[in-house]
Structures are given as structure tokens and as C-alpha cells.
Write the C-alpha cells for this entry.
Amino acid sequence: MKIKRISALILAVVMMLAFTACGSKDTSSSTSGKTYNVGVVQLVQHVALDAATEGFKAALKDQLGDSVKVDVQNASGDSNACATISNNFVSKGVDLIMANATPALQAAANATTTIPVLGTSITEYGVALNIDNFDGTVGGNVSGTSDLAPLDEQVKIITDVFPNVKKVGLLYCSAEPNSLYQVEVVKKELEKAGITATFYAFSDANDIAAVCTNAVKNTDLIYVPTDNTAASSAGIIDGICRPAKKPVVCGEEGICAGCGTFTLSIDYYDLGYATGLMAAKVLKGEADISKMPIEYAPKFTKKYNAAICKELGITVPEDYIAIEE
């Protein structure tokens, strides 16, 4: 009888230990998991790029929670700094690099052929990466999202709202290949409409005032494409164009908010968020980045700068929405 009781006691203890061990194993597995390290190299601080970065981070947080760590580094408008930041991310062995703006993408793509690189706020990937006959998929370790709004529709803003304009100055940064791509297309579209279009290129923020002043003297209207240097110097452009009563039409909302009258714009937060969703799929192994086509903004909105339009006495068409101050 004693032997039976002892055996039963031993069996109970063994079962209890087994149950405890199983419970400990389950708890351990539920709290363990991979931590993803993502590096963000952003060319410069301005409204559009900042919004794209915030959208990117929000999407990663929504998809991966606390298992992802994002290190955002700003190059302060310096392409060489983009290269330094990208190389540092590579040496640290990050799991993915998000490159915000064209020079950042170029630097990241040059820094690694193995770590996934996603671009955002890139106008045209074929131009940015020197790809002939670009078919929409970069291949290799690069993909991302584009902020290109239809350029013919941007020209239509000029011809519809400013029908008496005869000469347009195309103000852009010569160091940004995607800016050159945009103004070349816009120039052709303007010339189709019988409007003279002239390039006014500045090399960096240091000579934008002189170039802009020259453009204002010789044209009826200024067009500024999606251009990072112009965006960070919108106050300078406004300080020259507004007193001269010369309207500025812009390629994106952030620039228009600083110096423009009208724009056909996208939501950069949404664009960044879409990039973050792509990143989450890559990190979780749900998508092969070499096969991911470039994604584009789902919608475009006609917007206007209420303060500048009022000061210049411009009548705003009913289908435009005021930019929030």
C-alpha cells in the first residue's frame, strides 16, 4: 500500500514538473523573436521628406510593433553625407535601408548590393539610377515608391489658370537629375501650348537667389518641379517672386506652401506609409525585393496657397483645395 502511494506521489510530481516545463517553454517562445534594424538616410529636412519618413515609420510600427528599430539620419542637403550615412548603415549590418530623395537613393544603392534598399520621394527611378528603358522594376536589391505627379496635368494648371502667360521660367537644381527630367518634360509640354520655356538652373542653395532674380526679370511665371533644394529654400524664392508679383506653380505641396500659388500634389505621408508596408513585407520574407515594381501615389489633388493667391489677386478655380496652414 505504501509502495502504491509513493508511486502515485512520484507520478504526480513528474506530471507537475512536466506541465511547468511546458508552460515555461510556451512563454519563452511568445516573447522571443527577431529584432529588425532599419536605417533611414534622408537628404534634407523639409515638409515633404519629413512627412514621408513619418509615414514610413508609422507603417513599420503598425506591421512589426516593437520588433523594429528605426535609425533616421539627415544629410542636411549634402550628397556626400548621404554616402557616409549609407556606408555606416552597411557597416552596422542593418536589415534594410530606406533612402528618402534621389541623392539618398543613389548613395544607398552604391553602398550595398545585398542589403534591401527602398527609396521614397523619388521622381523617376530610371533617371535616378541611370537605367536605360526602365520598365518599372529596378531589380537587384532596390525598389520603392515614386512621387511623380502627371507633368502634363501640372502644365495644364498653368495654361488654365494663367491663360495670358507667354514666358515661363523653369527653376531647378542642376545637381538633382530628377529635377532636370521634370523640367525637360514640362518644357516640351509648354512649347506644345505655344509658351516659351527657359531653364534657370542653380547648383545649390548658395546661388538660388541670383538665379531666381534673373528668372523673375525675364519671365511671366516661375515653375518649380519637385526639387529638394528648392523645397528647403522656398522662403528665398518667395522673397523674390511675391514682391515682383510673379506667380509660382510648383510640383508638390510642400514647396507650394512656402512660395507657390498652385500645385498638383500627393500626400507624402501616405507615400512614406506605402514604402513602410513594402519594407515590412521584405523584412518578414513575404516579398522578394528584386521582383517588387515601383509603386506610385494613388491620387493627386489640385491645391492652392490661399495667402499668396489673395495677395497677387489671383482668382482660384472651384476645383482647388486650400493648403492647410
The chain has two domains: 36-147+267-293, 151-265+301-322.
